[in-house]
Amino acid sequence: MIQHKTFLFISGAEIAFILFIVIMVFGADKLPEIARGLGKGMRTLKDATNDIKHEITKSAEDTGIDTTIISDVKKELNSVKDDLGDFTGSVKRKF
């Protein structure tokens, strides 16, 4: 059987229809400007998130909280994720 991948539970036809509507509403000449604005907004959000993470880590280190446990937990989670990926890779179902 053929297995279709969907992005956010939206099929390819639905994405094409949404793009068609966006082009009809905003016009083809405005799309690059809209995409550029969305990209800048996403970059600003990512930078703000990284700044918040940095401030939290810095505050924790200044107050004497042990932050090494975070890296240990990340290593353990990645190890479990890799092991699970190896296991599920051999057991994939066909629909």
Structural overview:
The chain is mainly alpha-helical. It has helices at residues 12-26, 31-62, 68-89. It has one domain (12-89). It is built from three helices and no strands. The model has no long low-confidence stretch (mean pLDDT 82).
Radius of gyration: 22 Å
Order of helices and strands: HHH
Query: How many beta-strand elements?
Result: 0
Q: Could you estimate the helical fraction of the residues in percent?
A: over 70%
Straight-line N-to-C gap: 6 Å
The dominant shape is flat
| Total number of helices | 3
Structural class: mainly alpha
What is the residue-mean pLDDT, rounded to a whole number?
82
Number of domains: 1
Biggest pleated sheet: none
Amount of beta strand: under 5%
Unreliable sequence segments: none
Give keywords.
95 residues; mainly alpha
Summarize the structure.
The chain is mainly α and 95 residues long. The chain has helices at residues 12-26, 31-62, 68-89. The chain has one domain.
SSE layout and pairing:
Layout: H1 12-26, H2 31-62, H3 68-89
